[in-house]
Q: What sequence folds into this?
């Protein structure tokens, strides 16, 4: 499973110290930004699972950072506030912008990690795809185990060798056993899952094709376009409107085989 990434806009040192404490390095990769520009740049170069915005003494910079919740709805946004009476308007503004929650600084500390990770993109992606789509014909225990390991990466690049290590087999053994006569081969399924993530990220108003390609580790927008055409016959311009079920059906229609 990939380590989730949390982006945080926390210009105050006291808030930075708090956020480092509640998101330990062994569980989360934390990217801290002190300016709205740096915060926004994170979403265009990284697959962000969740985002936190310090609301204490909120000013223009705070709301410039908070507006990214509307540009990147795939990311669960959380406000951080001491929950004073004067925070009510800021909390209401976050709700209107689509924030998932507002965390009480100093009160929710013990629960913050799980509260945030429960709504992280990677976890939601894995939960949504917990069962392999019926159209793929993945029915064996090994296929299910491998699928679970694959979707836990949230669409990030993952090699056949890495998946083999996770399921306790050699790369050659896994590839051979995964692809039965009726099933797609593993490399194609890896490509499909990555493309399903690309389609979700393409629905973000703040992302363009180049951003999605960069975030998911494609060499370029052209590389993503080639992959989309090869795996599903879809153009990248159509990814934002296609549902996962649409992409899976396109894939299942004769596009599930490649060289091992």
A:
């Amino acid at each position: 499973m990939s380590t989730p990434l949390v982006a945080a806009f926390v210009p105050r040192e006291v808030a930075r110290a708090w956020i480092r404490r509640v998101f330990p390095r062994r569980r989360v990769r934390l990217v801290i930004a002190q300016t709205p520009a740096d915060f926004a740049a994170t979403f265009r170069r990284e697959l962000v699972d969740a985002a936190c915005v310090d609301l204490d003494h909120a000013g223009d910079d705070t709301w410039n950072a908070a507006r990214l919740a509307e540009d990147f709805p795939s990311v669960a946004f959380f406000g951080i506030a001491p929950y004073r009476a004067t925070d009510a308007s800021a909390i209401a503004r976050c709700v209107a912008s689509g924030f998932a929650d507002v965390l009480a600084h100093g009160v929710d500390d013990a629960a913050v990690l799980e509260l945030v990770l429960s709504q992280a993109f990677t976890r939601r992606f894995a939960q949504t795809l917990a069962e392999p789509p019926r159209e793929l014909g993945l029915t064996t225990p090994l296929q299910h185990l491998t699928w679970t390991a694959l979707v836990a990466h949230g669409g990030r690049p993952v090699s056949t060798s890495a998946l083999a290590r996770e399921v306790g087999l050699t790369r050659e053994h896994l590839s051979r056993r995964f692809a039965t006569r009726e099933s797609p081969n593993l490399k194609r399924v890896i490509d499909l899952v990555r493309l399903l993530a690309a389609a979700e990220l393409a629905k973000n108003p703040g992302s363009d094709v180049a951003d999605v390609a960069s975030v998911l580790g494609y060499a370029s927008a052209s590389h993503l376009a080639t992959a989309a055409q090869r795996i599903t016959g879809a153009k990248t311009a159509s990814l934002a409107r296609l549902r996962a079920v649409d992409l899976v059906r396109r894939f299942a229609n004769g596009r599930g085989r490649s060289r091992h």
User: Anything to note?
Assistant: Residues 186-202 form the longest helix (17 residues). DSSP finds 14 helices and five strands in the chain.
